[in-house]
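quick q for whoever's on today - can somebody do inverse folding on this one?? i tried earlier but teh output was garbage lol. tokens:
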């Protein structure tokens, strides 16, 4: 098997095609075992892409477009199916992403998301949308989601590979951007308030536990309602009328709610 720019056409391949699901989309790998120079057996995988029709062994990926793949013939490219890409665009996940984008625009919150790190605004907006759309999904699935969603149309410069997301989150966590976010976000929260309103600004304050096994200075043993965890606690201050967060701060996990 080869991963060069030209697909292989080996007459007979050892191994098998392994199909699996991510969300509602089926993907496939070609898998086999090979031996290195020291006769050590290695499990080899080659990504085939999205399964379009398993009976016909029809697949699609960005590198080759549409193609058939069988153990008998290897790759057989299908340029005759390239027109179907227009149909793929039509089926992009749309509704929830449109609502999210319009909410940002109509409320003016996009001033914050677009100006926090201007050169990465598409990445930030796309990640926020991914988290709102699939709150229980890991960030390693963001690229797959992005390729099948309207986000790739409204945020075309987003970079959502797993490694890129890790670097972006590290950058986003820098103290400078924490302060920059505060300077952009607080005017948005208070823009419709006058001085007398601010004096009686109704807020809710609570803290939530973040159980973890990280060796961080703030991780400590906590007893919350009889449940013992090693955790960090996160304090929230929220506008009681709009529900929007005003302030947050991580603290040591063994500090109880009354103290916060």
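ok took a stab at it. sequence:
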């Amino acid at each position: 098997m080869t991963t060069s720019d030209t697909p292989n056409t080996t007459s007979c391949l050892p191994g098998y095609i392994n199909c699996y699901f991510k969300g509602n989309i089926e993907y496939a790998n070609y898998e086999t075992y090979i031996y290195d120079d020291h006769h050590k057996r290695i499990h080899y995988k080659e990504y085939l892409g999205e399964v379009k029709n398993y009976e016909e062994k029809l697949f699609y990926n960005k590198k080759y477009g549409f193609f058939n793949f069988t153990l008998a013939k290897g790759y057989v490219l299908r340029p005759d199916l390239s027109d179907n890409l227009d149909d793929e665009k039509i089926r992009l996940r749309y509704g929830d992403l449109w609502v999210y984008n319009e909410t940002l625009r109509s409320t003016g919150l996009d001033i914050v998301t677009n100006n926090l790190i201007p050169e990465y605004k598409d990445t930030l907006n796309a990640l926020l949308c991914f988290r709102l759309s699939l709150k229980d999904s890991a960030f390693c699935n963001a690229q797959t989601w992005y390729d099948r969603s309207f986000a790739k149309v409204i945020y075309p410069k987003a970079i959502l590979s797993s490694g890129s997301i890790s670097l972006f989150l590290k950058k986003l966590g820098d103290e400078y951007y924490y302060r920059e976010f505060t300077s952009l976000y607080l005017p948005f929260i208070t823009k419709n308030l006058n001085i007398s309103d601010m004096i009686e600004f109704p807020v809710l304050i609570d803290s939530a536990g973040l159980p973890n096994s990280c060796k961080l200075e703030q991780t400590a043993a906590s007893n919350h309602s009889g449940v013992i965890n090693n955790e960090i606690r996160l304090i929230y201050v929220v506008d009681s009328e709009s529900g929007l967060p005003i302030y947050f701060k991580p603290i040591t996990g063994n500090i109880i709610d009354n103290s916060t």
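fwiw The first helix runs from residue 85 to 90. also The longest strand covers residues 41-53. so keep that in mind when u check it
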